[in-house]
Design a protein that fits this description.
This protein has a domain at 3-257: Carbamate kinase (3-Layer(aba) Sandwich). The protein has helices spanning 16-31, 46-57, 63-87, 119-126, 153-165, 198-206, 214-223, 292-302, 330-342, 344-347, 374-384, 408-418; strands spanning 3-8, 35-40, 92-95, 102-104, 113-116, 130-134, 137-139, 146-148, 169-174, 195-197, 227-231, 239-242, 271-275, 278-287, 310-312, 321-329, 351-355, 358-364, 391-395, 398-404. Helix 5 packs parallel to helix 7 and helix 8 crosses helix 9 (330-342). The protein has an 8-stranded mixed sheet, sandwiched between helices. By secondary structure, it is of the alpha/beta class.
Length: 435
């Protein structure tokens, strides 16, 4: 008997029929002799609808009350799922985040898990019940308030429960069959991976891949949790995310070059990630003297914006001034622009330019460490397609470029083909959202 933690996203429990389908899958796992703990998201687009409603009532919502509102979505789906399981003749008990022992810091809207005390969950499992937990939410002991974990919080909830309960695997269910070499909605010929390293998955998630959220992957890597990304709508075995020291399950085809058994055969590139959620700010005419970049990014940091890529031009000899460009989430851009504009006289730059029509393309692969020519392949493919590169950033296992947003999808397909990642058939997205 294994202990399996399963997580079902919003598209998996979008309506009554979907909830009954998920309940059957959970019951089938229980019938196979396994203990089951389930973390569930709000139904469909419930969270977005609640956010819209809150903004209609109050354009600036009190963070505490917004968390109280948003956490209700998961409570609805957890109770309905437990009811569906009961109707199939199995005992199921639903728990809110606080009842499940998800202890967080006091940050509303983006709380971080500081401890998990799943006493009531363990008691329910010992009594033979299937456990259903509301994802995305927790409880702060000091303020005694409900908190939410931010986007992807249900993934993080599931991984945290798996770590605390010492589960054998954490299955993350969505509407795609696993982790692909690219977003199948952008690159139809994307190929499903049997195995991906947690290191590669962190880079893919950080650069736009939507199947798993970066905080969940970080938590799994830190606590040694094996993740299996699967589809609610098919019976495929999905993709296993392996942290250091883990080996692929026996069910994985051992001839696959991405298994731990044959690291020397590891492909150079694991996947191509795309991201249309970023904007670019250019600070024009910055005095090219020591300390000015520090001043600029201290201002940006105080605004709460999260900077991604940074490029500084060579200064003009005639003026002694330079331009500094950086990318950040579109949602943070207005905050950063206001903060910089307020300090323009003190910093001494000439003007600001905001561009929200960009796209970021990233190529990720652990094999980059030991293979040359990866950059040349990327740049040649983009050149052949007539795509202009505006910014470049690299890490040990990643190359990212910023291009025009309208060019991103075509660029992804060309680059995907250039690295030999295309599959023989078109990938399937069952519900259309990628989650």
């Amino acid at each position: 008997m294994a202990l399996i933690v399963q997580k079902y996203g919003g598209s998996s429990v979008a309506d009554a029929e979907s909830i009954k389908r998920v309940a059957k899958r959970i019951v089938d796992t229980r019938r196979a002799g396994h203990d089951v703990v389930v973390a569930v998201s709000a139904m469909g687009d419930t969270t977005d609808e609640l956010l819209d409603l809150a903004h209609q009532v109050a354009p600036i919502s009190a963070p505490r009350e917004l968390d109280m509102l948003l956490s209700s979505g998961e409570r609805i789906s957890m109770a309905l799922l437990a009811m569906a399981i009961h109707s199939m003749g199995f005992e199921a008990r639903s728990f809110t985040g606080s009842q499940a022992g998800m202890i967080t810091d006091a940050t509303h809207g983006a709380a971080r898990i500081v401890d998990v005390t799943p006493v009531r969950l363990r008691e329910a499992l010992d009594e033979g019940a299937i456990v259903i937990v509301a994802g995305f939410q927790g409880f702060n002991r000091d303020t005694r308030d409900i908190t939410t974990l931010g986007r992807g919080g249900s993934d993080t909830t599931a991984v945290a429960l798996a770590a605390a309960l010492d589960a054998d695997v954490c299955e993350i269910y969505s509407d795609v069959d696993g982790i692909y070499t690219a977003d199948p909605r952008v690159v139809p010929q994307a190929r499903k991976l049997d195995v991906v390293s947690s290191e590669e998955m962190l880079e893919l998630a950080a650069n736009g891949a939507k199947v798993l959220y970066i905080r969940a992957v970080e938590y799994a890597r830190r606590h040694g949790v094996m993740i299996n990304a699967r589809s609610t709508f098919s019976s495929g075995q999905g993709t296993f995310v392996l942290s250091p020291g883990m080996t692929a399950p026996a069910s994985i085809v051992t001839a696959s070059p991405r298994t731990q058994e044959s690291p020397m055969e590891e492909p150079i590139v694991a996947g191509v990630a795309t991201d249309l959620s970023q904007a670019k700010i250019t600070v024009i005419g910055v005095p090219d003297v020591p300390g000015k970049a520090a001043e600029i990014f201290k201002i940006v940091a105080k605004s709460g914006a999260n900077v991604d890529m940074i490029v500084q031009n060579v200064s003009a000899a005639a003026t002694g001034r330079t331009d500094i460009s950086f990318t950040l989430p579109k949602t943070d851009a207005s905050l950063a622009l206001r903060a910089l504009a307020a300090e323009q006289a003190d910093v001494g730059f000439e003007s600001l330019v905001h561009d929200d029509q960009i796209g970021k393309l990233s190529v990720v692969g652990a094999g980059m460490r030991t293979h040359s020519g990866v950059s040349a392949t990327l740049f040649e493919a983009l050149s052949t397609a007539g795509v202009n590169i505006e910014m470049i950033s690299t890490s040990e296992i990643r190359i990212s470029v910023v291009v025009r947003g309208d060019d991103l999808a075509g660029a992804a397909r060309v680059v995907h083909t250039a690295y030999g990642l295309d599959g023989d058939t078109e990938a399937v997205v069952y519900a259309g959202s990628g989650r």
